[in-house]
Amino acid sequence: MSLPTGATVVGIKCKDGVVVATDSLISWGTMILTDKGIKAFKLTDTIVLASAGLTSDYQMLVNRLKAQIKLYELREKKDISVKALAKMVANTLYARRSAPLFVQTVIVGVDDAGPSLFSLDMGGSLLSEDVTAAGSGTQMAYGVLEKMYDEGVTVKKAEDIAVQAVRAGIARDAQSGGKIHLMIVTEEGVTEKSLEH
Length: 197
What we know:
Elements: E1 9-13, E2 18-22, E3 26-28, E4 31-34, E5 40-44, E6 47-53, H1 55-76, H2 82-95, E7 103-111, E8 114-120, E9 126-128, E10 131-134, H3 138-148, H4 155-172, E11 180-186, E12 189-195
Antiparallel strand pairs: 1-2, 1-10, 2-11, 3-4, 5-6, 6-7, 7-8, 8-9, 11-12
Helix pairs in contact: 3-4
């Protein structure tokens, strides 16, 4: 999928949690706007959304989701599950398919069902996966993921794999760059790290 802005976003489901990593470069075509962008967002205590694409579109999506999550939790009197949130995003994107949000989205989290990872395209396709990559650095990231990923990987090992995958995107994709932003989700909550590439 061709997007107006670039990114390298990587998600890895582990036996003890989920890891998502992104670059921090915000660009518009060939123009760099900043290398301090945020592409991963904590939506609840144990759910993170990361996105590649048009910055204004994913920022608007995140703001809308935060409100919808509060309404869901008030109505249902329970925390939203990762799957329910992913379906909420899929429905939002599908409803806008004639005037789409230019985003590729990765949703990761941990709930009663264990660790989960979902990827969505701008049309609202919803896929449950063990590993995924999104953005203009996808091909380079998958080169690392396919070589290094093993089923049942731990969060500690997945952090290293995710960093190397985003580094590969930054090295070969002109629209990816800046720092590497990691978000690790376990039963205890979300931990954030920022690394130089």
